[in-house]
Amino acid sequence: MTPLPGSVLVLGLVPMHARPGDPIPPLTPERLLTAWTFDIWALLGVLVPTALYLTGVWRLHRRGDHWPVGRTLAFVGGGMGFTAIALLSPIATYDTVLLSVHMVQHMILTMPVPLFMALGAPVTLALRVLPKGTRRVLVGILHSKPVKVLSFPLVAFALYIANPFVLYFSPLYLVTLQSDFWHNFLHLHFVVTASLFYWPLVGSDPIPNRLGYPFRVLLFMLTLPFHAFLGVTIMGSRTLIAEEWYLAFERAWPPSPLADQEIAGGILWGTGDAIASLVIFILFVQWFRTSQAEARRVDRQLDREEAAARRRDRTKAVSSGAGEAGDPDEPAGVDQSSSAGPGRSES
Fold first, then answer.
1. What are the residues facing 37 on neighbouring strands?
2. pLDDT tens for residues 35-64?
């Protein structure tokens, strides 16, 4: 494996953000396993949230409270795991070299990462372990006007849909390739804007603008035509996205820049639909569980009402029986000796 200039010779790690002029080795099956990259900000972006989350879980268990294992696996294994794959694996090593690899990274950061982070319910965990004052600040932020506006379903939907169109059909994408700062900012932007969309859909955290499940499913399904349209458009375009950047690498190994762009469009189209199936499945599972829980709650309420009605009936029956037994208008008994009348004495 030929390292990139200035590579970190520890565990075969290489620095992020390859540029034209760097000797870029071909992307081979071997390099898919070995060409991991190193970036301190990406590493901190994985380790810090993971450490904070696990600390919160540990504090809950230490005081005897329960926290679902599934939520921990979703946040740490799913959310942070996919973040590490997107930002530290060979995907990050080649994300500025091949548009198709960048598209894989884009899809990971905008779909699995926010999805599993939302399923991990980190806000709920924070509210259970933070001190009262800090908890009050967090609740204030969650219910602040900017958060309410940005997480409003139609606003979040518009941001989520508009992001890739604005990025790939404007000079902004080239800027993110040329600048390390804007390249890292793009990753953060992907995760934040996608989280604004996913949190009200699949998350269980106490956040504003929660929709009913039928509207959640409908809103998410509305994203599918946009992903498909963008993917097909990129596949069919004869004009290269960030043409000067990709041609400047002068790669002698396949795929060609145009073929690579066609692959990128196919990845956007195909993986978008595949991950969407997972999201819709999760929504239907949550919908079913919520319906079952609501049915149990209604059953318990009906049972309580029936028990209260039976108690009232018994109380009324006892009160009625006592009243009849002590009614002064009714004789307590009948004098048998008087039943024959005065004619009996004559005999």
1. 14
2. 888 888 899 999 999 999 999 999 999 998
